[in-house]
């Protein structure tokens, strides 16, 4: 492993200051970072630890009905929290379908949003062609094994998919991250947190040097209780999504007032399905309406030969998730 020092700040201000150095990286639960350090995919000179009480881990409903989750909360604690299970069951489901119980007990929710792609070429230091690791080196996935890769938001430089399950319902629910950095605090919608690869695939988020995610807020949404997270994967434990769908429906009488739909495993970032949502506005929740809306799931997709199967899978996953939550109307 590449040599590094470990800094243990006791407060956020010091952590942000230490993390602002160009050769520093943050570590919290460490479940992704340790793999990347071991394989020397990441080579920080200084690691700045955010565990040990630096990050808030409180979870609770705020005045007005929004849900606030401290970024230091463990995935398992959020998944099992009564307020999360009651107000936003799709968030709990997405977490429980992530990784393994051991990882969920260690990993923080802030770190989960910042995990790196699972592209096999990115994670194999023996592969030279990876623009995300070394800009200009090429992309081995373009004509290689791209079955798990993205079909939305890709560029000619990178087709990696975003791996977080947790981020998918957050995008659907208009969640935002609270960030603290050397220049102060700011709020970033989760939908704006991750960047498309474009010409700079090595840049994955809009976070600036030294900025730390301190909390995640989900605004009140009446449709949160009528929601589900469907994950399609090659095996039922510890596997990343081929395709996933987060769906929440707010009803008014026997019609859909507002639908929220996002997908995982298919985009360079967690992908909000605006076309699907528009097709569901003010319609009766029946199979015909769900089928017509699900057809919009693959709008704008640009598949490679190895992942073209995802387009049909996306439509089927959205349809099935809609049937699951719409069947109780
Ligand atoms: Fe690297 Fe992206 Fe290509 Fe994977 S898809 S090899 S991460 S450039």
From TrEMBL:
Keywords: Oxidoreductase. Its EC number is 1.17.1.4. It holds the Pfam family CO_deh_flav_C. GO terms for molecular function: FAD binding; xanthine dehydrogenase activity. Transmembrane segments: none annotated. SMART domains: CO_deh_flav_C (SM01092). Residues 1-223 form the FAD-binding PCMH-type domain. This is Xanthine dehydrogenase YagS FAD-binding subunit.
């Amino acid at each position: 492993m590449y040599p590094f020092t470990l800094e243990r700040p006791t407060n956020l201000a010091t952590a942000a200051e230490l993390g602002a150095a160009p050769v520093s990286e943050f570590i919290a639960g460490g479940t992704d970072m340790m793999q990347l350090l071991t394989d020397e995919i990441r080579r920080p000179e200084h690691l700045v630890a955010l565990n040990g009480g630096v990050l808030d881990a409180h979870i609770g409903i705020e005045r007005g009905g929004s849900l606030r989750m401290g970024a230091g909360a463990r995935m398992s604690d959020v998944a099992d929290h009564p307020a999360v299970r009651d107000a936003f069951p799709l968030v709990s489901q997405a977490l429980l379908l992530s990784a393994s119980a051991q990882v969920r007990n260690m990993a923080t929710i802030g770190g989960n949003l910042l995990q790196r792609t699972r592209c096999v070429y990115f994670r194999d230091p023996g592969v030279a062609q990876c623009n995300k690791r070394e800009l200009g080196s090429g992309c081995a996935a373009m004509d290689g094994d791209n079955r798990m890769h993205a079909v939305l938001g890709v560029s000619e430089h990178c087709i990696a998919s975003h791996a977080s399950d947790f981020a998918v319902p957050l995008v659907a629910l208009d969640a935002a991250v609270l960030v603290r950095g050397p220049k102060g605090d700011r709020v970033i919608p989760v939908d704006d947190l991750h960047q498309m690869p474009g010409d700079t695939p090595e840049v994955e988020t809009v976070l600036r040097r030294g900025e730390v995610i301190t909390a995640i807020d989900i605004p009140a949404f009446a449709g949160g209780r009528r929601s589900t997270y469907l994950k399609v994967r090659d095996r039922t434990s510890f596997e990343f999504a081929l395709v996933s769908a987060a769906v929440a429906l707010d009803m008014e009488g026997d019609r859909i007032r507002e639908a929220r739909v996002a997908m995982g495993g298919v985009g360079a970032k967690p992908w909000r399905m605006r076309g699907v949502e528009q097709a569901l506005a003010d319609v009766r929740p029946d199979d015909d309406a769900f089928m017509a809306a699900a057809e919009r799931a693959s709008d704008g997709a640009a598949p490679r030969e190895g992942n073209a199967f995802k387009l049909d899978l996306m439509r089927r996953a959205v349809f099935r998730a809609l049937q699951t939550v719409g069947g109780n109307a």
